């Protein structure tokens, strides 16, 4: 298997894992405060990441890598989880998932700015088309009904795209799981402190779905998914493999409909199928 194909496979596996993130977050914020959820998932994943680093006796990153690790931490450990958790207090997970269609474009842009990649012009055409379809859908589904939730999702997409691109660039030297583990460990002291300062007054009344949501985002969304995702971006290219995330809407909507019983409109499905075609077009012209 060549490196590019391996990159697309790893990226696809990471995307499938991430597709459960927003539905799981939606479940968790039904009973947990968004700030507590954000710091708790980061602290739990940080402890697991530290354990992996100690077990495999990984070498400490160079001092020159610290800035990049901080950017990764701010983007995917704190920024995206916190902004999406707050957003999901205002909008449904099905609605929020549509915004994920903007993430590949944000990742590609930061891949150029931070990773030095240069996709062909046709790549940008398909990437922008897919993002425009998603953004247009979001606007037709009631932006005015919850501007706060939509704006929070847009901010989350921007910081996440930066975190993805920065982490992928660093993964070329350190390895995928090592990057997310070090980013988690770097932020862990603050996250653990914030867990105790944001503890709920009581855990009585917090339902099983919320606990399951917390477990999923802590283990899969915050750690395991990144093992595949960063490896895929590093192997296949940040801009190219990042387009796989357009498919996340399809998997996420399926989960939102089946697990949360949220309404998935025919238009949502049409838009999702259209962006799938854009993924294939972007892949063809990525290099």
UniProtKB/TrEMBL annotation:
Classification via Pfam families: EamA
Subcellular locations according to the entry: Membrane
Family annotation (InterPro entries): AA-Vitamin_Transporters (IPR050638), EamA_dom (IPR000620), EmrE-like (IPR037185)
UniProt keyword ATP-binding, yes or no: no
SUPFAM superfamilies: Multidrug resistance efflux transporter EmrE (SSF103481)
GO cellular component terms, semicolon-separated: membrane
Residue ranges of domain EamA in the record: 7-130, 148-280
Protein name as annotated: Transporter
Originating species: Hypericibacter terrae
